Amino acid sequence: MPLAERANMAYLGTNVVYGRGTGVVTATGMGTEMGAIASMLQEVKTEWKCY
Prior knowledge:
This protein is mainly alpha-helical. It is built from one helix and no strands.
């Protein structure tokens, strides 16, 4: 399911100001959204051109 369509999910940095709840961990490490971003950053190739 695309990230924008996921309901009732809490991500890194989510602040809760009121209420009660229970959480279930669905992924850790490179399996998270932050891990996906880290993987994309590792794939970036840089070409250096000297003039």
